[in-house]
Amino acid sequence: MLPSENRLRRRQDFSTAVKRGRRAGKPLLVVHLDREGDRPGRADRESDRGPHAAEGLPSVRAGFVVSKAVGPAVVRNLVKRRLRHLVRERLPRLPAGSLIVVRALPPAGTASYLDLERDLDAALRRLLRAEPTGTAPTGAGR
Questions:
Q1: What is the pLDDT of residue 1?
Q2: What is the DSSP string of the chain?
Q3: In what order do the strands lie in the sheet with 99-104?
Q4: How far apart are CA 55 and CA 51, in angstroms?
Q5: Residue 58: which of 125, 103, 120, 13 has the closest Cα?
Q6: What is d(CA 84, CA 62) in angstroms, rounded to the nearest whole number?
Q7: What is the largest CA-CA distance in the chain?
Q8: pLDDT of the residue at 34
Q9: Are 5 and 52 in contact (CB under 8 A)?
Q10: Distance (Å, whole) CA 21 – CA 49
Q11: How many CB atoms lie within 10 A of CB 88?
């Protein structure tokens, strides 16, 4: 289970992550990541900080979308539990204040835990090496 300060609950936060964040699609899931640096004026919002968050650092918050296309309720809940566990282990790797939304695709309903882990890691690697929106590449190393 994700700690309370790491959960996305408001529709507006889900929309922000999906609309403004970067997206990485894989066969089993799509991951949307909105880094705090990509959102102007959001660093001071008190609602971004959980009661147990480090002083001055907003928490990384995660949300999950698992539609009926994935399968019946039992399957959807299994997929959500697996994804929550996988994301919880990866929270320390994400930039402080980030919003992450993981959307399961229909094949996720029949996928193994290891398959979900592989796709999530591949998507996060792609998103974390990408340049934040609004910054020009430095050209270093050329």
A1: 78
A2: ---GGGB---HHHHHHHHHHSEEEE-SSEEEEEE-GGGSTT-TT-GGGS-TTSPTT-PPPEEEEEE-GGG-SHHHHHHHHHHHHHHHHHHGGGSPTT-EEEEEE-GGGGG--HHHHHHHHHHHHHHHHHSPPTT-----TT-
A3: 22-25, 29-34, 99-104, 61-66
A4: 10
A5: 13
A6: 8
A7: 52
A8: 93
A9: yes
A10: 19
A11: 14
> In the block, which residue shows the tokens 């695709």?
105
The pLDDT of residue 43 is 44
**Residue 32: C-alpha distances to residues 3, 7, 23, 49, 108 (Å):** 20, 15, 4, 20, 17
Both structure tokens of 111: 């996928």
Rounded Cα–Cα distance for residues 12 and 46 (Å): 15
Q: List per-block mean pLDDT (blocks of 10 residues) for the chain, which spans 142 residues.
A: 89 93 96 76 48 65 96 97 96 93 97 97 91 50 44
What are the backbone angles phi and psi of residue 101, rounded to the nearest 5°? -120, 125
**Would you state the torsion angle of the CA atoms of residues 63, 69, 70, 72, taken in this order, to the nearest 10 degrees?**
110
* pLDDT (0 to 100) of residue 126: 95
